[in-house]
Amino acid sequence: MTDSGYIIEIATSDFSTTKSAVEGGADRIELCANLAEGGTTPSYGTIKQCREAFNVLLYPIIRPRGGDFLYSKDEFAIMMNDVKLCKQLGCDGVVIGLLNMDGTIDIVRAAQLIEVAYPMGVTFHRAFDRCREPFEALEQLIEIGCERILTSGQRPSVTDGVELIAELNRKADDRIIIMPGSGVRKENIKMLAEKTGCTEFHSSLRGKVKSSMQFIHPGFPESEESYYNNSISSRDVILLKEALR
């Protein structure tokens, strides 16, 4: 726990955004690729370089593709290998999430990932928000040794799910961390802390910055994917933390 009593986790999409988040004082990084798809597993090179460059808690997401959270045998094998890789690279934890076809948590395979990850910590991501019975899922994730649950209260935005988050945090009773995420901003983080009693918060603070490219191809003059890059303002991270004081 930090001096303020709160922990701020920032979801980043590459080395550059991670650098900005760390400079802004992020307490933990959820390292992703493809944040526009909700985050997929970053490359070996990205994880390695971030681990070597930054003295901050580093939790890569283990998600082999965008889309749903129902994974094939081959996809699960990929997840297992990526967890082992993160462990070898000295990461502090990983972020996982798996569901069964009926909307229950895939507790058997989640437990296998947690076992392989040890002694790294494990966060269960917003696959939780698509599960059928959140309070049953809460108890299952506690039982298999999950460290925390990232949730928006089973709504697209955390501000709409605040009541469920508060109830989950009460039921968790310090047995697992409930971490609100999805739409956490400096304007609402204090309210979320007061209404839910949570002490860890997740935000991506996603922005875009114009490319430094001088040559703009005339066939793609307005192409955002060609001439804009993902960005995080370190100042926004500072302001997010200050809003909790």
Give me the CATH fold name. TIM Barrel
Write the CATH architecture name.
Answer: Alpha-Beta Barrel
- Which structural class is indicated by helix and strand composition? alpha/beta
CATH hierarchy, class: Alpha Beta
Main pleated sheet: 4 strands, parallel
Mean pLDDT: 96
Ends: how far apart? 14 Å
Number of domains: 1
* DSSP E strands, number: 10
Strand order of the largest sheet: 3-2-1-8
Helix content: 25-40%
The fourth-level CATH homologous superfamily is Copper homeostasis (CutC) domain
What is the percentage of strand-forming residues? 15-25%
Number of helices: 9
Structure report:
- By secondary structure, the chain is an alpha/beta fold.
- The protein has a single domain, classed as Alpha-Beta Barrel (TIM Barrel), CATH 3.20.20.
- It has 9 helices and 10 strands.
- It has helices at 15-23, 44-53, 73-88, 107-117, 134-143, 162-172, 189-196, 224-227, 234-242, and strands at 7-12, 28-31, 57-60, 93-96, 121-124, 148-151, 177-180, 200-203, 207-210, 228-231.
- The strands form 3 sheets. It has a 4-stranded parallel sheet with strand order 3-2-1-8, with helices on one face. Strands 4-5-6-7 form a 4-stranded parallel sheet, with helices on one face.
- Helix 3 (73-88) runs parallel beside helix 4.
- The radius of gyration is 18 Å and the shape is globular.
- The two termini are 14 Å apart.
- The relative contact order is 0.15.
Please give the structural blueprint.
Elements: E1 7-12, H1 15-23, E2 28-31, H2 44-53, E3 57-60, H3 73-88, E4 93-96, H4 107-117, E5 121-124, H5 134-143, E6 148-151, H6 162-172, E7 177-180, H7 189-196, E8 200-203, E9 207-210, H8 224-227, E10 228-231, H9 234-242
Parallel strand pairs: 1-2, 1-8, 2-3, 4-5, 5-6, 6-7
Antiparallel strand pairs: 9-10
